[in-house]
Amino acid sequence: MNIISVNKFFWQKGGSEAVFFGEKSLLESKGHTVVPFSMTDEKNLPSEYNQYFVSNVDYATAGGAAKLTSAMNIIYSFEAKSKMKQLLKVFTPDVAHFHIFQHQISPSVFGPLKKKKVPLVLTLHDLKPICPTYKMYSNDKVCEACKGRKFYNCFAKKCTKGSRFKSLINTVEMYLHYFLGYYQNVDRYIAVSQFYRDKMIEFGFSPEQVVCIPNYIDATQFERPYDDQGYGVFFGRLSYEKGLDHLLNAAALAPDIPLYIAGTGPSEQALKQAAKDRGLSNVKFLGFVSGDELLDLISKASFTVVPSIWYENCPMSVLESLALQTPVIGAEIGGIPELVNHEKDGYTYQAENDQALAESMRQMMLDSTRRQRMGEAGRKKIVKDFNETTHYQRLIDLYQEII
Questions:
Q1: Residue 291, Cβ density class (10 Å: 0-12 exposed, 13-18 middle, ≥19 buried)
Q2: Were 93 and a residue from 4, 107, 143, 400 both cysteine, which residue would form a disulfide, CB within 3.0 to 4.6 Å?
Q3: Which ranges constitute the DSSP H helices of 180-327?
């Protein structure tokens, strides 16, 4: 089978890219041909198709005339459409699978593909088809104001980084894309959590159009000897919606529990200052950690914590933790409760409830034997339900259904 796989980043930027590259490798290992369509970047991995990649644009830093041009490209990228047309002259796909592509690539590439009768699949790493800012999170809280295609609320509430101009662009983008039928014409959406599938249906998509295929993980790449060293860890992007201010509050309520925070992001300095001002000596910021160093950090932890306060999908951080036999404490929001079985392979607690989070941390540290039992149960679940064989079959069945 010939597949075009679309993701605007062709380097390991985050969880979405882990899924993108993982599926690409998985499909290629089964004999399929996967051609990437992406954005140029000096960090990109090598590809013989990079001449078809679109120009690298950082819309966050654009100014002056470039700001207006950038706004137009977000809504409709003529360059991306042209590049896709060129690619289709040298490669004939059976299906096109989209991951993160909005703004730099845009749905303008749907047209050339549909003209060639290529079915479209879109993995929902976020909720962009129903939320202009993709997170359903605005002004420091979960937001569903755009339900019923009331996208004007994005502009009214300045949802995009507090900017009236950027919010206007995202509002116009959504209305135009719906008017042109882009999101309606995607043949299948892959929701990586049942929560995301339910939310898409609630917002007007047909049940037949949205299927649930969770992320997967190759457990053989996450094998470490059990070595519980008595600390908790958060790893990931340091941004407000990740709930890290609540994690600091919980750390203050449980000062005897060492807590490591690995990662970088826009909230990093504010979080460090808050921890310093409050004298949280049990909290240590490690900065960016990756590779074997990160795996060792997770595998030696007594637990990992996912304190998110927005609609998480199917966090790879949870799958990776469980694969490493490390129990997870996760907020009851989005797709997190689908992955963490309370009191079996971790604990769940009411999102934004600092006392409940602190109590979960204390309970986790009380009994090392129970923690080990939870870790073993978590890895068994990953091996059984989130393996690459099952994921591959689900994916191929979906492709064959729409071809």
A1: exposed
A2: 4
A3: 194-202, 244-253, 268-277, 291-299, 316-323
Q: 2-129+186-216+387-402, what's its fold?
A: Rossmann fold (3.40.50)
Backbone angles phi, psi at 134, to 5 degrees: 70, -15
Backbone angles phi, psi at 202, to 5 degrees: -60, -35
Residue found under tokens 């729409």: 402
CA atoms of 10 and 53, how far apart (whole Å): 10
Contacts 24+ apart (CB under 8 A), 274-279: 274/245, 274/248, 275/248, 275/251, 278/248, 278/252
Burial profile 321-341: b = 16 or more Cβ within 10 angstroms, e = fewer: bbbbbbbbbbbebbbbbbbbb
Nearest to 385 by CA among 235, 188, 195, 212: 212
CA atoms within 13 A on the CB side of 98: 26
Q: How many residues does the chain have?
A: 403
SS3 87: helix
> Which H/E stretch holds residue 398?
helix 388-402
Tens of pLDDT, residue by residue, the chain (403 residues):
999 999 999 998 888 898 999 999 999 999 999 999 999 999 999 999 999 999 987 655 555 555 666 677 778 899 999 999 999 999 999 999 999 998 889 999 999 999 999 999 999 999 999 999 999 999 889 999 999 999 999 999 999 989 999 999 999 999 999 999 999 989 999 999 999 999 999 999 999 999 999 999 999 999 998 899 999 999 999 999 999 999 999 999 999 999 999 999 999 999 999 999 999 999 999 999 999 999 999 999 999 999 999 999 999 999 999 999 999 999 999 999 999 999 999 999 999 999 999 999 999 999 999 999 999 999 999 999 999 999 999 999 999 999 9
**Which residues pair with residue 347 across a beta bridge?**
329
- In the sheet that holds 259-262, the strands lie side by side as 283-287, 259-262, 232-235, 303-306, 328-331, 346-349
The CATH architecture of the domain made up of 219-382 is: 3-Layer(aba) Sandwich (3.40)
Give domain limits for the chain. 2-129+186-216+387-402, 219-382
